Amino acid sequence: AAGEGPAPAGAELAAVIGATVPTGFELTAAEEVQEKLGSASRISRDRGKIYFEVPARGLPQVHRLRSVDNLFVVVQEFKDYQFKGNKEDALKDLEDLVKKLPWTDPLKVWELNNSLKKKKTKRKKHNLWSTASKEKLNDDGEEEGADQKQEDCAQSAADAEPTGSQDTGKTEGVASRNGEEEEEDGNEQSDAKDESQAGSGSKTKAGEGETSEGEAKVLKFRVTCNRAGDKHSFTSNEAARDFGGAVQEHFQWKADMTNFDVEVLLNIHNNEVVVGIALTEESLHRRNITHFGPTTLRSTLAYGMLRLCDPQPTDIIVDPMCGTGAIPIEGATEWPSCYHIAGDNNPQAVKRAANNICSLLKKNENKESSTSLGIPLDIIQWDICNLPLRTGSVDIIVTDMPFGKRIGSKKKNWDLYPACLMEMGRICTPGTGRAVLLTQDKKCFAKALSRMGHIWRRGQTVWVNVGGLHAAVYLLKRTWERAEEKRSFW
């Protein structure tokens, strides 16, 4: 659509979206994308990423996906990029690449994404000041006009750019996880500061020099490079620095590591290179939790675990060791036709989970249109080995077992795990019940499971990375065997 005059906001514009997902749950995320957006995904060779194409007007739906952490629009992918052996030459090639990339459409997608964020923050402020005129803002048509102007502006400025060779073709999955951790952490910290800036690039141009609207605000940017592979002659910092220098020269943007409008991503995984522009400032996995505990589970991972056990309407779903409540809160939000029960033996955890539920209810109240509904979720303090639930009364159990690292100990797990599996087996419906359990203490779990083989059959195992720890998610099916009320394990 480039060059044909301004298109209506996001009309013919298509975007290749990259999404980072909890490692091991790439297929789950691809299924969700297919189901909710109707797009097929390519799963990256490097774990933890998927790619799919959507029309730019579908961006709001993309942000509503439950299994993705961070989103970016792909500028270009190179499946088999030939890096020179000499460091200077390799970095010079990356610099030269900037001028050849097809930035125009991805920057329009970024602009459109920004205008969506702006609407959202405007609406938030509006809610705080006046609940009476909730409807007014949306029906004004005023914002629509602003978006249109922004789109035109992006168009005219971006058209002036060299679009370079657009050989995107159909490439296999690409990109890479953090070759160096510090940059990842950097993202986390600067995220919070960015909230106020959401969409501050509104009346700016996304391209070179001038804009039709008089003087423009110079965009601030940073480049984040994630590199994996041992055949590169340079570090991710060097690549980010030199690539960033070329971006600055090309667009006349200003580099700013913490207060940036645009985050350009350079993902290098062996010979695969993906250049992208970030569409999320803060990982979407923090969506439901306001009160974090020492081991709060990512909402995206909670969603993946719940999805593994395929909840059906009217199922009773229990998380017996709920911590701050990430799993049941995600469950009640996404599967409201099930009944969710959460419990923990730690009063502090129960309090945090209750606070998270309250925050969620408040958030729901603030949303326009619907009358505020409760959520089908209760939280209880209990003892995992003596649950106050009737034998065979539960359809699904989903929980994050203590790893024995930050909470508890591996030694305690040797007694706890078999006792838990036994009690979970008791409350779970024989024949149809299922459990999805996450643990890093795989040895102990395998031993406990072998003792409990008469009541639990192991289905699928998904290997995941939880905060740098190599963990496993086990899907267990409840056998028809009756669970004895009490029995000695070892």
The CATH architecture of the largest domain can be given as 3-Layer(aba) Sandwich
Tally of DSSP helical segments: 13
Oligomer: single chain
The count of strands amounts to 15
Strand fraction: 15-25%
The secondary-structure class comes to alpha/beta
Give the count of structural domains.
2
Q: What is the CATH top level name of the largest domain?
A: Alpha Beta
- Uncertain regions: pLDDT < 50 for 5+ in a row? 1-7, 125-214
State the CATH superfamily name of the largest domain.
Answer: Vaccinia Virus protein VP39
General form: elongated
Task: Report the radius of gyration as a whole number of Å.
Answer: 25 Å
How many strands, what sense, and barrel or not for the largest sheet? 8 strands, mixed
Elements, N to C (H/E) = EHEEHEHHHHHEHEEEHEHEHEEHEHEE
Helix content: 25-40%
Q: What is the CATH topology assignment of the largest domain?
A: Rossmann fold
The average pLDDT value, as a whole number, equals 77
Outline of the structure:
By secondary structure, the protein is α/β, with parallel strands linked by helices. The protein is 36% helix and 20% strand.
Task: Please explain how this structure is put together.
The chain has 2 domains: 13-119 and 219-284, 2-Layer Sandwich (VC0802-like); 299-478, Rossmann fold (3-Layer(aba) Sandwich), CATH 3.40.50.150. It has 13 helices and 15 strands. It has helices spanning 26-37, 59-63, 87-100, 104-129, 134-139, 142-159, 181-194, 236-251, 299-308, 326-334, 347-366, 410-427, 442-451, and strands at 14-20, 41-43, 49-55, 70-78, 220-228, 254-255, 262-269, 272-278, 316-319, 339-344, 377-381, 396-400, 434-439, 456-466, 469-478. The strands form 2 sheets. It has an 8-stranded mixed beta sheet. A 7-stranded mixed beta sheet has the order 11-10-9-12-13-15-14, with helices on both faces. α3 runs parallel beside α8 (236-251). β10 (339-344), α11 (347-366) and β11 form a beta-alpha-beta unit. It is of the alpha/beta class.
